[in-house]
Automatic annotation (TrEMBL), chains A, B, C, D:
<dbReference type="GO" id="GO:0000166">
    <property type="term" value="F:nucleotide binding"/>
</dbReference>
<feature type="domain" description="Gfo/Idh/MocA-like oxidoreductase N-terminal">
    <location>
        <begin position="10"/>
        <end position="138"/>
    </location>
</feature>
<feature type="domain" description="GFO/IDH/MocA-like oxidoreductase">
    <location>
        <begin position="147"/>
        <end position="291"/>
    </location>
</feature>
<dbReference type="InterPro" id="IPR050463">
    <property type="entry name" value="Gfo/Idh/MocA_oxidrdct_glycsds"/>
</dbReference>
<keyword id="KW-0520">NAD</keyword>
<dbReference type="Pfam" id="PF22725">
    <property type="entry name" value="GFO_IDH_MocA_C3"/>
</dbReference>
<dbReference type="Pfam" id="PF01408">
    <property type="entry name" value="GFO_IDH_MocA"/>
</dbReference>
<protein>
    <submittedName>
        <fullName>Gfo/Idh/MocA family oxidoreductase</fullName>
    </submittedName>
</protein>
<dbReference type="InterPro" id="IPR055170">
    <property type="entry name" value="GFO_IDH_MocA-like_dom"/>
</dbReference>
<dbReference type="InterPro" id="IPR000683">
    <property type="entry name" value="Gfo/Idh/MocA-like_OxRdtase_N"/>
</dbReference>
<keyword id="KW-0560">Oxidoreductase</keyword>
<dbReference type="InterPro" id="IPR036291">
    <property type="entry name" value="NAD(P)-bd_dom_sf"/>
</dbReference>
<dbReference type="GO" id="GO:0016491">
    <property type="term" value="F:oxidoreductase activity"/>
</dbReference>
Length: 391, 391, 391, 391
């Protein structure tokens, strides 16, 4: 219990690279702008070595550090474990944490295989019965424009969903001499563009429509088979070393899909879309209107209302910074936009609220498993002449 | 031979609805802005009845009229037959005209089946040996921004093609009470969104890349199975009558594809994209850059040059109205944009140039057949669980 | 009287350069797409020499030609004189034509001085009493998106006008070696950017708001004092010759203004806005909403409705191609945009309608005079330390 | 001296409303993402009462609190005073702090009059001789896209500046029943839109061009003379109470200006631009190119290079998130945009760097005075029939 009477929630974070920095900023910032029902404490961060973990703790604002995730999970003062490591480690850490009675926030993709993801979802279900909660970090759900899109679709503003058009376009592999990082290694990353970024748009499409993908026809492609080995593998900004190695994941993925509500969908994920830096695009056309979003202009949602007079109907460019917009009452005046990391702060806010109330947060591990099943179906279809695969 | 010494070219047009109006404007306008090597004469238009044809002739500026296309083809003073009727009539008219020694301009899609299209392409090849030319009307090729895109791709400005992203989005069927027109009748139209508008983006993708589609995985959908019968079927603006009938074509189509140069492609065509009126979108990502186009802003081409410094690289919004841009030296000063119908005028200019020189024009009937084969492969794949079909 | 019973209207055009080409296309096209109440005949065009006039007539589709405007005005078969010459000739030709009983369409600016413009407006008033009509060619009024903006403002959709923000930005003089054309010669052109292009946005602002400019504070600037003499002065595309001469007009103009309804306005006109080709921008903010337009995307109007819920309010991007939009029922299906020259066709349609009904068309010569007075007030203010000048 | 050997810098902040929240986030965040040469400590915050100050301290992350700014300035452990109060208090606090040997960061506008601003600039100059530094908070300078614009202009990429087009458009007073806050009270705020938001675009224009405004012609307007009294005056989100009071500041301002390099400029600031939420727009046209920025899309800069081939020239949409862009190496991967508050973090980084090196930071109080002089000249000109006023 804290000085102001709110219960305390001790956080332990595993991993402190790109995602660790983003999560730390969220844990630091959320209590400054939102009235959290629990007093969050940034208790400790775990890394690969005691030294790197302590450097990270100092840098990122954690009270302590641990040389291994197991030590972190074992701490009594850690109530929630925040997993920011590559996908091949998620299952082991998350299941151990849940079994130890710790709430878990796990970065996406939930795991590198459906089998692992299933174990995790089962572990989460079991934990839930003991009041222990689990959430997977599909953070883009918490961009205010995406939340607004969901709200409008839920309210029926666009009617029955006919089309989903979802793309995640990056270009950081366009250069054929860009080095091999762990993200290009199937053993570590599970898959390439499909799982790393395609997973995001799969989740967004299901979240905003409130529907499930029921089947897919997929295509994968690796444009550049071999790349320079990376000297160091620090996130996206690795430096090329000597020697070359094979790219074992997809550079790009595309698939057709059907939605549970009768609509059809087209998905694309690539790191080869020259000029597109982080273009997460989602357009949904319904029987009464449409919504459209592009993360390159993240504070904006476009809404088309087909019920308006034809003479004045048009896509509205909604600047999603009004006090009535999701999360925005806690930030700045209208027109003062948010950035990438704010979605992580919103994730913390929602998660802490869930822990305080005991209501299971979304997206659940089962939602993460659902995405994993879509990824697997796409891979199977792609390997089998794009033949349709149910999900 | 005309007064100014240029040889005369007598034009006969079949059909005088939407496409007939557009073609007529082109035949009227081309000689006013371009130095045509032949003196074109708008000799006669053929319709279903003598009366309707004469009314159309007066309205659209043709010197005479004929009650049937056969009479038109038989006229000695008609050197070129311009076919603006629905797809189910193309083969018969075009083959007859070619055999009669008339050059032919045939609206797209070339035919309603691969079999018909093959006969037409064969007829065109045979005619070519006699110096008789044939062209299919994929008019959007002649939007200046598309021509510029082709020129840039051909010059290697974007390098090897990695991605093609092509969409043709309309919304005029979103309203479920919008009536049945001939475009929703498989017998007349051959297919729905796929053949009517998808054909355009297939042609554009192949034209701008200079590559062929080698295989596809397709999906078709008819969202609204039954509609009010149309009282009259005047183009897109039909009025609902009494009774209802079945929609026998696709409302929307989507397919994955591979390009002959190693790139991958995603295509979509629909009449259900609420708020998108005529959004022909083409984005091509290459190893050195990208081009992007949207017909809703038709005088603009976006170009990304990946060879530029990262700090100042960005998609350039090229306003395609400079004298050095394709066709533009013949129009207005920079910044004074063109409209939809100008592409038809450019089509006439290029066709007349081809007739004058005897160099076969593009797109040829064989190009039209290539598109037809893609359409057929998409339909077959869609009917067979999206299984991959070579083209 | 024509064959179909409609009265005949013989048109005589003076001048056949850039504006002559645009007007000719309009006279040729209007009867093909609109049901004109009169049968227009392109009777004759007048130029500086018999030869140049005849070449123009053949090229542009006029039945005959005259070596001087006086001969044209004298012809019995000319009922309407269309003046497409530089501004220093307008007054003489227009007044003579009106006195000869000919309806007049006169290109903008109405004249090169308030004195001349006043004479012309008086002549037009006198002619009106004899049933002879006069119109000045502020053609951009007839871009459909501008007409729609006017309609919405008139209906009260944006409430009381608070702000007008009007810019006409070009860049064709950015290059300091671009040659002297007649447009840079005060004796011929009257003024520079101010009168040539600023006049357009002054008229648009007054037209769309339905208000008058009541006073101004102005600033003029000539950035490049001397330029190469032009070898020939063919419109905007002159070629540099030898020698240099002084630029005697403004390169750029800017002014503050007050509107009769209580709003304030900012105007800018320049030929030095590098990268802006023909950016006619008009934004009007009212107490209940806003409209915004940019000619570089001429088929679009942006509308903001402040009465909407704050959460879903946003500028609507209206694609102004619906059948219910001004003039559009006569053109193509939704989404098939128009180009620059279509506004000239609409001008012809409206003018012929006015002649048929006898209702004086807008903009009248008095509207043209009103613009001229604003231009003069800006020049006087600029010459007097930007001190406020009533209009 | 801190544990890691860096010297300590104790920060004291005065005021804890909107600006106080933004500054606090910056002080908290800067050391997490940047390697600051000093160890900053958020020592204390001062408010109007001991209680409100302590609540703010707890909320915003300050170690302590003071009931008055005088107590804060008197503390030995405060090395830098960060002033976040309304403009009428700036001079007294800043001068006292400087005289007490504290570095000062003062929110804009520097003061409510030229007289006060002059005293402050003099105090800053005197302090500088003692190694005490002062900076004024024109934060928008530190938006990366603005820094990039400055860099490009400085490098000569757009040549000689011809035009500056600067607007700051908001709409929060469009509603006539929006209540009176201190920002509408001349005694507190000094001026209205002109000083509050116009000051920002004046500073941006001078910063990005590297030039000074040498003279102006101004116009001010108050559209709504009387408003409901505010029940509470909490920043922008005040609630209306009973009774009405007069608006004593301008609702909107516009002025013409000349730049020291020979270019001309048009400025506009308003809170009545319905639909524009925080549209800070800056376009600069030069002899070799242009840059354009709109804060509603704050991670983007548009660049036009007139030296490029006319056929491929166009405004480049630069997504300013590359590692080579100003400040960006410290944030996220390309395409992951920043938000409003990041500019405050950059301000802290630059200020701390200046304190560590002793190099006076920009914008200086003298820069703030320069802006104040422009504001005064605009007011004088507006009061005198817009007559030109030198600055």
């Amino acid at each position: 219990m804290s000085a102001d009477g709110r219960p305390r929630l001790g956080i332990g974070m595993v991993g402190h690279s790109f995602m660790g920095a983003a999560h730390s900023q969220a844990w630091r910032t959320a209590p400054r702008f939102f009235d959290l029902p629990l007093e969050t404490e940034m208790t400790a961060v775990a890394g690969r070595t005691a030294e790197s973990a302590q450097v990270a703790a100092d840098r990122l604002g954690w009270l302590g550090s641990e040389a291994s995730w197991k030590d972190l999970v074992a701490r009594d003062d850690v109530d929630l474990v925040d997993i920011c490591t590559p996908g091949d480690t998620h299952a082991e850490i998350a299941i151990a944490a849940l079994e130890a009675g710790k709430h878990v926030l796990c970065e996406k993709p939930l795991a590198n295989s459906v089998a692992e993801a299933t174990q995790m979802a089962d572990a989460a279900d079991a934990a839930a019965e003991r009041g222990v909660l689990a959430m997977v970090g599909f953070t883009y759900r918490r961009v205010p424009a995406i939340q607004l899109a969901r709200r409008l679709v839920e309210e029926g503003r666009i009617g029955t969903v006919r089309h989903v058009r979802a793309q995640y376009l990056q270009d950081w592999l366009t250069d054929e001499e860009s080095p091999l990082t762990w993200r290009l290694d199937k053993a570590r990353a599970g898959s390439g563009a499909l799982g790393d970024i395609g997973a995001h748009v799969i989740d967004l499409a299901q979240f905003v429509t409130g529907e499930q993908i029921t089947g897919v026809s997929g295509m994968l492609e690796t444009f550049v088979a071999e790349r320079p080995l990376a000297e160091s593998s620090a996130g996206l900004s690795a430096v090329a070393g000597s020697g070359r190695g094979p790219v074992t994941v997809d550079d790009a993925a595309a698939f057709l899909a059907r939605m549970s509500g009768g609509g059809i969908a087209v998905f694309e994920a690539t790191r080869f879309a020259a000029g597109r830096k982080n273009a997460i695009r989602l357009e949904i056309n319904g029987s009464r209107g449409s919504v459209a979003f592009d993360f390159e202009d993240m504070n904006v949602l476009h809404l088309y209302d087909a019920d308006e007079d034809a003479e004045t109907a048009g896509f509205r460019r909604i600047v999603v910074t009004e006090p009535g917009h999701p999360y925005l009452a806690h930030w700045w005046p209208a027109g003062h936009g948010l950035g990438y990391e704010h979605a992580f702060t919103h994730q913390v806010v929602d998660l802490v609220g869930a822990v305080a109330t005991g209501v299971p947060p979304a997206p659940s591990f089962r939602d993460g498993l659902a995405v994993q099943k879509v990824l697997a179906a796409v891979e199977e279809s792609a390997a089998d002449g794009s033949t349709w695969r149910g999900v």
